[in-house]
Amino acid sequence: MQCWIYKSPRRPGTYVYLRQRDAFALLPAALAGSLGMLEFVLELTLTPQRTLARADVRVVLANLEQAGFHLQFPPDDPVAARGY
Q1: Whole-prediction pTM value?
Q2: Residue-level pLDDT at 81
Q3: For residue 16, what are the domain limits?
Q4: Rounded Cα gap, residues 17 and 63, in angstroms
Q5: 15, 66, 75, 84: most buried, per Cβ within 10 A?
Q6: What would the pLDDT profile of 59-84 be if each residue is shown by its tens digit?
Q7: How many domains does the chain have?
């Protein structure tokens, strides 16, 4: 599956994976507002065999399939522990 990765200027270390390029409408409004104007980082092809540094690729793929996006917080972010 092809995906597009963006970083948040307001939340360092926070990345959003989208199943469609610039499909920011897939994000809940409150979440999008808290992240600020997302900056494009990378286009990537994901497969179940691919290894990602900070995320389980199967979880990312499932979130892209179901919601159209995956949110990756830095490992020490307290919001990540609560969910968004």
Answers
A1: 0.87
A2: 46
A3: 1-46+69-74
A4: 9
A5: 15
A6: 999 999 999 999 999 877 655 544 55
A7: 1
